[in-house]
Design brief:
Elements lengths: L6 H10 L6 E5 L3 H13 L3 E5 L2 H8 L6 E5 L7 H10 L6 E6 L3 H10 L3 E5 L3 H14 L7 E4 L2 E4 L4 E4 L2 E3 L3 H12 L5 E2 H9 L9 H14 L7 E4 L3 E4 L4
Parallel strand pairs: 1-2, 1-3, 3-4, 4-5
Antiparallel strand pairs: 6-7, 7-8, 8-9, 10-12, 11-12
The chain binds calcium ion (CA).
The site of calcium ion (CA) has 5 residues, from loops.
Length: about 240
């Protein structure tokens, strides 16, 4: 790992695409590497979460809340290539950059064949990693990748603003996160437990009515006075954002 950090160089890279609000999942069991990358990315404005175990990482990776996943290959529990293969088998298109050791040539080739978007070889420069993160996001549609849309509802992940029919909607951070999870996959029904885990974390009592209360508030804000209601309740199951026809 190269510890040198030239803020000038990363500043130039950061100008290419705004890193604010870009969510990165680092899957890495070497705490020194994970810590270095996390710190470096956070300094650039990325939102970063670290997972050091393959099984937990797979659950987080498939949650649909990340813009990029940095994936180590050798992990305790499920290994990186298995995580990648399963994500792609489930049609999860989140960009994945493999973090590989120099000796892992076979794994790199296998990873690219399995649908990895890119790889970096450890040790790497932080600037190189950031450039590759921006490159894979751009390849997925650039700034468009940071803007989610369902009907006339637009959710901008970079500025954390939501608009319906061009009208700005004022949301609390929780309401925004809740909306983000739903709008990332229109048509998919999320149970209360899934929403609780994704938006509030795992430590909350599953009996809490936090989800329902926030859904009601969100519904008032995005559907009030608008045409077709977008936030749907699927009785006995959960909630979804209606998929555009
Ligand atoms: Ca490892």
């Amino acid at each position: 790992m190269t510890e040198s950090s030239s803020s000038g160089a990363s500043g130039a890279v950061a100008d290419l695409l705004d890193s604010r609000g870009v969510k990165v999942l680092i899957v890495e069991d070497e705490s020194r590497v994970a810590g270095f990358v996390k710190k470096g990315l956070e300094e650039q404005g990325f939102l970063v979460e670290v997972c050091d175990h393959g099984d937990a990482a797979y659950e987080r990776a498939r949650s649909g809340v990340f813009d990029v996943i940095l994936l180590d290959v050798m992990l305790p529990g499920r290994d990186g290539l298995s995580i990648l293969a399963n994500l792609r088998a489930q049609k999860q298109t989140v960009p994945v950059i493999l973090l590989t050791a120099r000796s892992e040539l076979d794994e790199r080739v296998q990873g690219l064949n399995l649908g990895a978007d890119d790889y970096v070889t450890k040790p790497f420069f932080l600037e190189e990693l950031i450039a590759r993160i921006f490159a894979v996001i751009r390849r997925r549609g650039g700034d468009q990748g940071l803007r989610l849309q369902a009907g006339d509802l637009v959710v901008d992940l970079a500025t954390r603003e939501a608009r319906r029919g061009g009208q700005p909607i004022t949301l609390t951070p929780r309401e925004f996160n809740l909306l983000e999870v739903l709008v990332r996959t229109p048509g998919r029904v999320f149970t209360r437990t899934q929403l609780l885990e994704r938006v509030w974390g795992y430590d909350f009592d599953p009996q809490t009515n936090l989800v329902d209360v926030n859904i009601q508030r969100l519904r008032k804000k995005i559907d009030a006075g608008a045409g077709e209601p977008l936030l749907e309740t699927v009785r006995g199951v959960g909630y979804r954002i209606r998929k555009a026809d």
